[in-house]
Amino acid sequence: MTNQSTIPVIVNGAAGKMGREVIKAVAQAEDMILMGALDTSPEHQGKDAGELAGLSEPLEVPITDQLEPMLGYVAGERQLQPAVMVDFTHPDTVYNNVRSAIAYGIRPVVGTTGLSPEQLKELSDFAEKASTGCLIIPNFSIGMVLLQQAAVTASQYFDHVEIIELHHNQKADAPSGTAIQTAQLLAEMGKTFNPPQVEETEKIAGARGSLADEGIRIHSVRLPGLIAHQEVIFGAAGQIYTLRHDTSDRSCYMPGVLLAIRKINQLKSLVYGLEKIL
Ligand SMILES: NC(=O)C1=CN([C@@H]2O[C@H](COP(=O)(O)OP(=O)(O)OC[C@H]3O[C@@H](n4cnc5c(N)ncnc54)[C@H](OP(=O)(O)O)[C@@H]3O)[C@@H](O)[C@H]2O)C=CC1
Ligand SMILES: O=C(O)C1=N[C@H](C(=O)O)C[C@H](O)C1
């Protein structure tokens, strides 16, 4: 039943791996209603979002690639609460999706990674001006938040650290958004890591990975059979301290996604990171 407190939700990237999980989670949440399912993949146009997500009953929400008409329609449904657009699409399109949603007064909950620092700043300014909440969350799993907190604690005692992120080989961006965020959190500790011990020569370009903030290196592995995994490895004389998170099923992200949908109406600007709303 739709009522005043039901949150209208649009899922962008609805036919993708994450989009299908979000459709299921939203359909099962009593305080949400799926108002729209966007996806540009030609083979899924017009299909029922619920059936595509593997639900036993259709949701009678067809997949469409018409972003602006959908945003306009949902924004016009004034008897409902302000709507939320969940975005799990592609690094090349997420910036425009988020801008369009904010322009229509629809709050974006963004899982798509790959936004540049400049794009993040522009979206932050845009959301602030529009006084509209926007959540950008590189990783929705609670386990990753805990790993990052443990890494921040360890970084007070270790000066040497490297990050390895491992993902399925359909992933478009590297390094992962999570690895970049992890490096940023460590860099915010106000010290430079990995003081050089010798002059290094890369015999093959990229052998030492990518150099993120404050001397932290990130190594990206892409293989079929992987989902999403990350290690943060600290080293000191005579010891190694390894933190590792493994995703075995994408359902692990759903409690975080539902929490973000519920919390975003309390926000009036852009917030980055799941830890900020826990
Ligand atoms: N924050 C987090 O916790 C997580 C974030 N992610 C991120 O989410 C994003 C999506 O991941 P995933 O679901 O695995 O990717 P998929 O490729 O499985 O799904 C993306 C879907 O979006 C569609 N799409 C592409 N461009 C557009 C567009 N302009 N408008 C609407 N739909 C579009 C794709 O269609 P087509 O295939 O035809 O291009 C595809 O169906 C990635 O950036 C990934 O890194 C993933 C997991 C967790
Ligand atoms: O593409 C993925 O799968 C994932 N992307 C996010 C990232 O880039 O960090 C989150 C998680 O690692 C899964």
UniProtKB/TrEMBL annotation:
Keywords: Amino-acid biosynthesis, Cytoplasm, Diaminopimelate biosynthesis, Lysine biosynthesis, NAD, NADP, Oxidoreductase
Amino acids binding (S)-2,3,4,5-tetrahydrodipicolinate: H168, G177, T178
Pfam families attached to this UniProt entry: DapB_C, DapB_N
Subcellular location: Cytoplasm
Enzyme Commission number(s) of this protein: 1.17.1.8
Segments forming domain Dihydrodipicolinate reductase C-terminal: 143-278
Annotated metabolic or biological route of this protein: Amino-acid biosynthesis; L-lysine biosynthesis via DAP pathway; (S)-tetrahydrodipicolinate from L-aspartate: step 4/4
Dihydrodipicolinate reductase N-terminal domain segment(s): 7-140
Major location category of this protein: cytoplasm
Catalytic site positions: H167 (proton donor/acceptor), K171 (proton donor)
Enzyme class: oxidoreductase
Keyword Cytoplasm found: yes
GO MF annotation, one: 4-hydroxy-tetrahydrodipicolinate reductase
CDD domains: DHDPR_N
Record's catalysed reaction(s): (S)-2,3,4,5-tetrahydrodipicolinate + NADP(+) + H2O = (2S,4S)-4-hydroxy-2,3,4,5-tetrahydrodipicolinate + NADPH + H(+); (S)-2,3,4,5-tetrahydrodipicolinate + NAD(+) + H2O = (2S,4S)-4-hydroxy-2,3,4,5-tetrahydrodipicolinate + NADH + H(+)
InterPro entries (UniProt xref): DapB_C, DapB_N, DapB_N_CS, DHDPR_bac, NAD(P)-bd_dom_sf
Domain of life of the source: Bacteria
Quaternary assembly: Homotetramer.
Stated family: Belongs to the DapB family.
Entry function: Catalyzes the conversion of 4-hydroxy-tetrahydrodipicolinate (HTPA) to tetrahydrodipicolinate.
Identification of the protein by name: 4-hydroxy-tetrahydrodipicolinate reductase
The species this protein was found in: Okeanomitos corallinicola TIOX110
